[in-house]
Structures
1.
Amino acid sequence: MADHAHNLRATFTGASSSSKVKPIGVITRGTTGVNRLRRFDRWCFHHPHVRELATDVAPLALDVGYGASHTTTVEWGRWLHRLNPDMRVIGLEINPERVLPPQSGVSFELGGFELAGYQPQLVRAFNVLRQYDVDQVEAAWSTVTSRLAPGGLFFEGTCDEIGRRCTWITLDADGPRELTLAWHPWGITTPSDVAERLPKILIHRNVPGEKIHRLLSAADTAWKHAAGWEPYGPRVRWEKARAILIDEGWPIRASRRRTSDCLLTIPWSVVSP
């Protein structure tokens, strides 16, 4: 049977930011797995703005569309509680049958992109919009970002089934700020392999003439030029390839800490459709 899950559509117009009556969104497949979002969790934990938001009075983080299992929401909660034990972490699901009792310091409620009337500092929605029509993405973004607390961030992305390849867009009240690509060092042959898990708004844009295709092609070329570092492992090879990209003028935000993941974070304007 053909899989039409990527054609889901929701109604985003006319919803009140304070409404707790009707969640905005469509029930998705809801599949997940243990540590599936670990690459995002680690990155999020070390993000300077996230750390700043965690010091707000009564900080709140929402995980929208956590799916049929609470696993990834609880895992994110553990990371966030290391930043601030008093941070509230809530998983929102549009399917009432998936709403669970509180556990492991995390609570669960009925809700969708309207954020159940909350005004959080942090919002995450992974592997949700990839199941929607692409022309619904920006409406979903606006619905969430209009409800953020001052200075709040929204992370929208996708990953493969076991979390080896993961990508996400960081947004604030003004819209998308940057794109991050993250992958297991031994999980790819070339950096462009991560393209299969690009966010919905970009995944069909990886064709010649588009910005994202230009970036991934440049990354593959830099990876090839860094082949001499392969004996030191793919993590070191990617560090050298990323340095080549920076030397070529790509405005990549390089982490000052040594990470177990391969990361590429770049301003949204560089890759926007």
2.
Amino acid sequence: MSMLRTVKPKNARVKRALEKREPQLIENEKTAIFVRGQNTSQRVRDCMKDLYALKRPLAINFSHKNDVHPFDDTSSLEFFARKNDASLLITGLHSKKRPHDLVLTRMFDGRVLDMLELGVEGFRAMSDVPSVKSSLGARPLIVFHSDLFDTHPSYQLLKSFFLDIYNGHSLSELPLTSIEHVISITASPLPSSITTTSEAASQNPALIHFRVYTIKLSSSGTKIPEMQLTEMGPSIDFTIRRTKEAEDEMMKMALKRPKIDKKDVESGLGKKRKNIETDEMGDKVGRIHLDKQDLSKLQSRKMKGLKKSRG
């Protein structure tokens, strides 16, 4: 039985709010919820604080403890996601068996799609790095350094998660002046005894280095400016522990796309509509056709100088 009752709209404002939560042809930017478990370590709390800062303003922070166990019972996470209209959850946990634990969860149609469990092996906070920080809501560049992110199933899942959390919608063009920081994710080489296709992620001791740098552009004498990177923080070392892959049928539904032209998707129009287009500034412009007007019948203000003479 669902934990949320079906809401019948009482007025137009509530109806519009409910329609925004329904499946859309073009999805909105994904909101992430940061959830604290019953037991969390200081390292996990600090790590979640900085990951939350990078995700803002599309982030919700749960400061209170919650009795959640993502791999055992997903009902609480599904309730949080539906109530807050969010499709991403980052849960912080800590136990003797799995210390400094971070669980990433994706939702689809109100249910858990897949999960990835990471261990926070090393952490340096953003506040410990004396440098200029990026602006709130600035969109980062994300770079992955390793062939494992294209070949190993667990690393492919991790790449997909971080792109969903921080990359947002794909864009064909982006002004250089709007780029303020870059997220670099590097995977250490796997030991030769571990294959890249069949070995379980829980037996994988390789570290994944999560680094964030600010970008400064300077003149290079050519059209392409010179780029300088300065560490911004946070600096995190992850290990992959457990994964829960999506069911084939559910993943097929999640990846299903409507038949919309790429140009229309990028302009945000969805299905092409007649006489409506988006200009270079991103504003929606419409053309209205009116019948021919007879200005001689236009009612104007009665002024003494405009009155016809009696003669």
3.
Amino acid sequence: MIQNTARPRGRPRSFDETGAIDKAIQVFWSKGYDGVTIDDLVVGMGVGRPSLYAVFGDKRAIFLRVLRAYAERKGASAAKALFAPPDLRDSIAGFLRYNVESATEKGSARGCLLLCVAPLVNDAEVQRFLQNAAMGGAALLERRFRDGISAGEIPSDFPVAARAIQVADLARGLTMRAHIGTPRKTLLKDAEEATDVVLLPRRV
């Protein structure tokens, strides 16, 4: 009996997709979206042009994939910083500190790809992605505040939605200030002070 052993088409990939996307993040960081060419991505990602198009698509498709990978990574780390501490104040302070520390990490571009590069891209899908990411971040913060209400750390009438947006805006502000060169030490001090302001009782 003859066995039907199908042979794989083409040669196996000689590169790591995840690693290539990580390299693409750095390419877009260094040149911005408009400044990046396919040649830049070919060199920066270490992928031949035919394989780049076949596996990742054009520049726009690569950028969208970069955004998804970057946001998932950042989101997971931010959620850990927010939900790991049992105390609400430590949670909010830890979330803001994480944003400062990731935006001022040595050896990487200052700021955040989602705040400093992506908003400048004139593309409806990119803008929708950023809006959804912002809503997802605010929802996580709301959830943490509600946990604080359940634990009796803040009163039941605490303005959860408004304060969640406030914290998200503070995180973005700290990140943008890192992008323009504000020292990490200054930003970490401001993050601690901002936490105390956020948790002040509701004014009547």
